[in-house]
Write the structure tokens for this entry.
Amino acid sequence: MSPRHAPTADAWWRRAVVYQVYIRSFADGDGDGIGDIAGIRSRLPYLRDLGADAIWITPWYPSPMADGGYDVADYRGVDPLFGSIEEADELIREAHDLGLRVILDIVPNHTSAAHPWFVEALAAGPGSAARARYVFRDGRGADGGEPPTGWGSVFGGGAWTRVTEADGQPGQWYLHLFAPEQPDLEWDNPEVRAAFEDILRTWFERGVDGFRIDVASGLVKDHASPEPPPPPHGVPSYVVAGDPLSDQEGVHEIYRAWRRVADGQAPPRILLGEVHASSPARVARYLRPDELHGAFNFHFLRSPWDAARLRAVIDETLASHAAVGAAPTWVLSNHDETRQVTRYGRPFTGIRERLLDDGQPVDEALGTRRARAAVLLLLGLPGSAYLYQGEELGLPEVEDLPEAALRDPVWTRSGHAIRGRDGCRVPLPWSGTAPPFGFGPPGSTPWLPPPASWAERSLEAQSEDPGSMLALYRRALALRNGHPGLAGETFAWLPAPDGVLLFERDDGLRCAVNLSGAPVPLPASRTTLLRSDAADAGDPDALPPDAAAWYLDR
Ligand code: NOJ
Ligand code: MG
């Protein structure tokens, strides 16, 4: 099969389907129980055939893995756990041969505490140039024993840790918005800025097509607001206007410089931000023509399964992105958030603090129906779409992992109050009837145990089943990539009953999503392209609750 498009096609990101590979949990080539580059390479044809345009690979750099690799000790290398730099080069080449672009994950807010810069900063002492790369401050109170501000870490506990100085005495404090093993960098420091621009260039020269920027909105802090931002409990990341730790004006200049680096490549490369801001309009400010190419639409991801709420997010997204000339993006899940099959089956269907919703009763059949409808909404909208590995298999959140297996720092940092994000990171089931389900070679043990019930959800088990989640994703992606009605950026709402989202794209292609409690009639004259509900169930001329359809109005 030939690639769908040449890797130089213009503005490809405006409508790209980007598949997120959480490397630890995707596929394990060497049998150590941890996903790796060899595993990804073996599955590239699967991703191409599924209909992805690009893959975003979560951090593969050398790391002590205090936060699954989001604690980077060397931004230019590959951790031996995942492979080698030569394998990375091979992966990039093979992906390009298949017409798949490769997006890496860069982590500029913080390094690992094992990064040579931080090791140097600890040794060098207060006032040194080495400390000026990080956010070191003297403590408050008579003996400096109180943290410099009341800010909390996203993973629980305080955001400052006190160091022991060379003389053995308690000394300064350093800032970490996440775990203590992830010290925040000082982005006012020109040396930090220059180093990251150089890291971007290094990987662009290796052929990567772009970067997903971790905590993109968090690099600049407002030290004049020392009190903790609400809300108190945290998993990433609930930003309210006025939060001193996110969406500060100073970040934009950083991305203008990065854009110059990306635009200076041949062909130009792209930048996608993990932007947490208080509204889609605030997110769009990162997408002005001289800043980032895209940002994750967390407002869409977090929305409850509610027509009015979704419609409002869609409207705000389309309007604010159009105002800056940016393409909208849509996403339903990632490696930090509760999988949609589970959350759409809970009493509260949106995303808020895990403390409130984890462990609530789940109607998984209902959640699955909604997740099927939701992907037709996602892929029916104009712009770019992000898929998280395993959603095409309809994987649920695994809420009953044994406590001893939990690895997310949230679990320990929250004093075991919040189990954390491991439940959406369970290694993928590819084939077979027993663990490791083809995740690794026979006899290997995946780093988190997949439930026995995942035998039915493996790629192999779903491949020949036309009613499977996988079959729905395949058909939807094939239509999205091939049907002219979905190719452009045209979008218009049509009148519809309460609780129903109905919009038109090009060539009379319509997408209807029923979030009401009653069936809604579909026009008799239509040509159905795809439905999320079972083809043979019920009245063909009505869309049942929690179902969606794509059809031509003729
Ligand atoms: C956001 C990433 O998606 C998450 O997994 C990570 O823990 C934090 N940033 C900190 O790097
Ligand atoms: Mg491995």
In short: The chain has three domains: 12-111+190-463, 116-175, 491-552. The chain has 14 helices and 18 strands. The CA atoms of residues 17 and 52 lie 5 Å apart. The longest helix spans residues 307-324.
